[in-house]
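Appendix C reproduces, verbatim, an entry submitted by the partner laboratory led by Prof. M.T., so that reviewers can inspect both the input and the predicted structure.
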Amino acid sequence: MSSGKSKKVTIKVMGEEYVIRSPSSREHMLEVGEYVNNLMQQLSERYPRMSLQKIAVLCCLNLASDLLTLQKKNKKNKGDS
């Protein structure tokens, strides 16, 4: 995240609008919103009978898994230096 004053951006996820405040750039926040929306769309297509709430939790679990994997790789790479 960049430093500075928080900016407001409206993003759309699964047809719902969310107003996000962040010191990150507008472009970054829009990219994050698009990424989450795409992942949730993919999950809802893969599991059409699953509720939106369960799709959201599954999305969070997928994102957390990706984050933890990257953190472990980063930690390992720092240890190799």
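Helices lie at 26-46, 52-80. Additional entries are available on request from the coordinating office.
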